[in-house]
Amino acid sequence: WGQLQEHSRSAMLLVLLAFAAPRTLQQVLNSATPPTSPIKNSDDLLLSRYGMIMSHDAATGYLKGGALYPVNDWAKTQGAAANHDDAAGFADQMTCGTRAFDVRPKLQDGQIVMAHGSVVVNHPLSDALNEVIQWLNGHPEEFGLVFLSHFDGDGCEQQVDALLLAMNITRVVDCDMLATATVGTVKNATRLPGGGSLLVLTGCISDNWDPTIECYGGTIPFDEKYCCYKENADVPLNQLWTYMNATTAAAPGSPLWMAQSHWQYSTTSVTFGVEHLSTILDDEMKSQINLNTAQRILAGHFSNLNLIELDHVCDHGLDVLQAIRTVQQIS
Question: Full-prediction pTM beyond 0.70?
C-alpha cells in the first residue's frame, strides 16, 4: 500500500489556528503582515524558493469516484470543485491553483497512460500534457512544472522521452543546472511557442515524505485513537503542522523540494476511513487542510516556500495560491 499512498507569529496564534474555527481567507489577508523586503518580480526568485502548488498524484483527477467506484475513493486525490466525485483534469486543476504536477507514467498496451500505485488511470499522458500546454498558452505569464516519477513498465521511461520529443518538450535530468537558477532563467529556457513556460523533469525534487502523517490512528479493528475531523483531531493536525513547519524551515533538498500538506494513507488509515464512510477527498475537506494551509502561509508559519503539495486542490487551492503570492509579493 505504501506506493499507493505513497518566523511564525506568537505561540498563541499557533494555538488559535489549530483549534479555533477557521477564519475566511479575506479576514486572514486583512490581518497579514506584508514581507519587510517584498519581491517585486517573481523572475528574480530562485526556483528553489518560488512557491507553487503541486497536485499530489495529479492523474487521479481523471478517475471517477463515488459508490460505483469504491477502489477509486482511496486512490483519487484530486476531484472537481462542484462535485469531488467528478473528474478534474490537469487544466481544471490549474484553474483551481495548481502549477506543478506529480505524474506517474505507465506503459500499458503500447500506450503511455498514468497510474497511482496499482490503480491505472486510463488517460493518455499526451492528452494531459496538451491540457497543460493549452492552459499555459491562454495564460502566457504563467509557469508550469511536471514532475515525472515511478515509471511503470519495461521501456516506459524511453517511451515517455519519445513522446516528449514528439511534443517538442525537453525533459530536464541534469539537476545541477537548477541549483542556482532563477525563475526567470527557467521560464525563458522552457518558453512554449504559444505562450507560457513548462518545465518537465525527473528527479531534482526532494519529496520529504513522512508516512506517519495520517488522518487516522489506532489499531484495527475497533481501537481508533484519533481522527482528523473528530473531537481528537488536534493529534493528527498537530503532527501535520509540526511537519510542515519543520520542513519549510529546513527547506531540504537540492535543488527543489516539496512539503506535503496532505494526509498519508496506510492500510490501517484506509480501514478506519472506510468505517467512517469517508474518502481521501472527504478527509481533506472535513479536516480543512487546504484552507488552513493558506491561513498558515499568510500568518508566516512556513519560513520558506517551494512545492506545496495538496490533495483536492479544487477545495481552497486558489486560496493557497493567493496566500503564496501575497507573502512573496507576486502579482
Answer: yes
